């Protein structure tokens, strides 16, 4: 399954590195955090100097994961320039996911970079070494295979990081990508004293909303949702979520609410991230491939879950309409 030659190259790059930088994507998720923390911890046990930086620093949405606070703001990356000679990008789908970090640190482009990803569509983008397995339901399953193949250290914490990634990307073994390999990886991880119920409680309590945020979520569901035939979408303006903890990940919650609308097969949520700049998330049932829609916006992802960014439109409502038109054309859905 894993290419022996690629594994050898990876092993020698890691062994010969003076220091390693792991980059968190601009929009991390449980699988990216789990992948990053698992390798960070394993390499530290090997005695390696490892740094973890991302545009959001330690995203408060994942503060329930032990070790999340190790992630630093990439605007401060210059301070460790020269202390690492190897960069890792994981679980991202496209380099768009590291755009902000590279914009503030263009010198990173000069450093040898490795990709470990389970996203197939990368628009032909290449780094110096690519270990890509689109058949893995979660990136942490691929990371687990690599750790085992190379005999890198693994302990309870690392096993729990890997399990968190599987939970996140299979939504607890119920997403369309869930397969025997996901269950097998989870069963193998249980040998390291993973505590699923504790992880679940930490996740629920860590993500709990305060009353203001819950009210805001309901307001978005009441005012900012459009349903047209099999498509439903929501637009989130900065004013809808300003003064809320970004860790609440309101857009993720809106997305899961849209799944409960009757007859919906394709969903997207567009959120304003800056003036005339937007972030888009797509979800679908298996008969529609939203990764193709994301690629139209230079993003990427999986068949049923993908993401992209969009610059230009004056308002989030205009952005949503523009995305809707591209989406129905790409997926062959009749305008409703
Ligand atoms: Mn993933």
Describe this structure in words.
- The chain is of the alpha/beta class and 336 residues long.
- The chain folds into 2 domains: 201 residues, Alpha-Beta Complex (inorganic pyrophosphatase (n-terminal core)); 121 residues, Diaminopimelate Epimerase, Chain A, domain 1 (Roll), CATH 3.10.310.30.
- Helices cover 40% and strands 18% of the residues.
- The chain is built from 12 helices and 12 strands.
- The protein has a 6-stranded parallel sheet, covered by helices on one side. A 6-stranded mixed sheet has the order 7-8-9-10-12-11, with helices on both faces.
- α2 runs antiparallel to α5 and α8 packs across α10.
- The longest helix is centred in the first third of the chain and has 16 residues.
- It is globular, with a radius of gyration of 20 Å.
- It starts with a helix and ends in a 5-residue tail after the last helix.
- The relative contact order is 0.11.
- The model has no long low-confidence stretch (mean pLDDT 95).
- Manganese (II) ion binds next to loops.
């Amino acid at each position: 399954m894993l290419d022996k030659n690629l594994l050898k190259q990876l092993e020698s790059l890691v062994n010969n590195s003076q220091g390693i930088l792991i980059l968190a994507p601009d929009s991390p998720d449980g699988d990216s955090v789990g992948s990053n923390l698992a390798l960070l911890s394993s390499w530290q046990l090997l005695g390696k100097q490892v740094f973890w930086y991302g545009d959001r620093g330690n995203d408060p949405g994942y503060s329930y994961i032990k070790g999340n606070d190790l992630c630093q703001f990439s605007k401060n990356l210059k301070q460790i320039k020269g202390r690492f000679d190897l960069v890792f990008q994981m679980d991202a789908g496209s380099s768009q996911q590291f755009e902000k970090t590279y914009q503030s640190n263009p010198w990173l482009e000069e450093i040898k970079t490795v990709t470990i990803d389970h996203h197939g569509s990368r628009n032909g983008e290449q780094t110096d070494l690519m270990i890509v397995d689109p058949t893995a339901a979660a990136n942490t399953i691929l990371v687990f295979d690599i750790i085992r193949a190379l005999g890198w250290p693994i302990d309870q914490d690392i096993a729990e990081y890997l399990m968190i990634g599987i939970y996140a990307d299979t939504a607890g073994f119920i997403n369309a990508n869930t397969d025997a390999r996901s269950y097998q990886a989870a069963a193998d991880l249980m040998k390291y004293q993973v505590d699923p119920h504790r992880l679940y409680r930490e996740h629920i309590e860590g993500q709990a909303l305060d009353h203001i945020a819950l009210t805001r979520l309901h307001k978005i569901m009441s005012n900012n949702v459009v349903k047209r035939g099999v498509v439903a979408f929501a637009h989130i303006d900065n004013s809808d979520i300003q003064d809320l903890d970004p860790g609440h990940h309101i857009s993720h919650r809106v997305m899961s609410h849209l799944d409960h609308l009757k007859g919906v097969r394709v969903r997207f949520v567009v959120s304003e991230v800056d003036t005339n700049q937007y972030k888009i998330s797509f979800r679908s049932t298996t008969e529609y491939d939203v990764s193709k829609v994301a690629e139209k916006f230079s993003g990427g992802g999986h068949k049923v879950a993908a993401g992209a960014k969009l610059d230009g439109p004056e308002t989030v409502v205009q952005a949503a309409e523009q995305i809707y038109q591209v989406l129905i054309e790409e997926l062959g859905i009749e305008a409703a």
